[in-house]
Amino acid sequence: MAGMELSPRHRMILKATVDEFILENRPVGSKTLFDKHDIGLSPASIRSVLKELEDLGFLASRHTSGGRIPTESGYRFYVDSLVVLYELTIKEKQRIQEEYLKMQFKLDQILKATASVLANLSNSAGVVLGPAKSLDTLKHVELIHVHGDEVLMIMVMRSGAVVHRSVFLDRNYSQEELYQISKYLNDNAKGYDMFEIQEAVIPKLLKRKDGPEHFSKVSEVISAAMTPDNSEVSVYIDGLKNLYGRFRDEEQKLNQVLSLLDDKIFLREMFGEYSEQDGVYAVIGKDGDGLMGGVSIITSSYRMGEKRIGSMGIIGPQRMDYNRALPLVDFTSKLVSEMVTRISK
């Protein structure tokens, strides 16, 4: 794209145009830029730069007025190269932290509160993707004899989730024998996720030969029963009413955004794409994907310890205050990572 070699005056005028449009939500003309922004060029020079920015695809005209509005490429260049990130004030940081102090500190409560913090502070919709079950790590496992060869396996996960599975072993084991097997697993498998336990921990224990005598007979059944059910990733959403205000005159766009937020599979894929990465991402329009036209998503991942386990962000109109939205999502994701890590210890 030719945009990367924009001259300083092109960059300055593109930035002023996007800033102005985000503020006022109406097409921006050279007179407004001349009057309100200290650009140091004549209205005629500003007009010719606006025309060049339009030719480059960064701005578009609405024929009714002489003004211009940013295109997706214009927003993209603005976010990548022109945004001056706003420093959240101490007061704003405290306001975010206070929301969490009300909590009993269960993972789902933290994530639900996060969607609401993001929605309130961005005046858009907040979305938080809970961890995939397979990323949750084991805190404790207990095997309890039910009757005959039936055993109840209870796994307490670091996120606070408790998973119950019924398993049938090759014979009737006493509770004492099951206790020895549980203890062996707790000593060696704690802190690993289910796939790691299945693929690395149990095979390693089988080679070691220092476990309870019946471990090798039951390990396969127990391993199979640990397979996580990944179909149910929770999605927490808040702030739909903010969108009614933000898209007031654009009913079609509003309906489109509401249908995106209603589509859990889309949200899981969209936010899931960024849960593997560090940093904050602005997704603007998404490469001509019709559904995302006019919509921007700011997203970041959060961690439990060293492990990225989910993602969060805000969805709103492209005309959003990126200067504030990016640091808001960044700060909140770091805070959530700290809390999630603390409760998982």
CATH class identity of the largest domain = Alpha Beta
Care to count the β-strands?
Answer: 10
Q: Which architecture of the largest domain does the CATH hierarchy give at level 2?
A: 2-Layer Sandwich
Q: What proportion of the residues form beta strands (DSSP E)?
A: 15-25%
Structure in a nutshell:
The chain is an alpha+beta fold. It is 49% helix and 19% strand.
Describe this protein's structure.
- It contains 13 helices and 10 strands.
- Helices cover 49% and strands 19% of the residues.
- The model has no long low-confidence stretch (mean pLDDT 87).
- Strand 4 (138-147) and strand 5 (150-157) form a beta hairpin.
- The chain has helices spanning 8-24, 30-36, 43-55, 72-82, 90-101, 107-122, 175-189, 194-208, 215-225, 240-246, 251-262, 264-272, 322-344, and strands at residues 59-61, 68-70, 125-129, 138-147, 150-157, 162-168, 235-238, 280-284, 295-304, 307-317.
- The protein is of the alpha+beta class.
- The chain starts with 7 loop residues before the first helix and ends with a helix.
- It is elongated and about 90 Å long.
- The protein folds into 3 domains: 2-82, Arc Repressor Mutant, subunit A (Orthogonal Bundle), CATH 1.10.10.10; 90-132 and 233-344, Beta-Lactamase; 135-225, Enolase-like, domain 1.
- The strands form 3 sheets. It has a 5-stranded antiparallel β-sheet, with helices on both faces. A 3-stranded antiparallel β-sheet has the order 4-5-6.
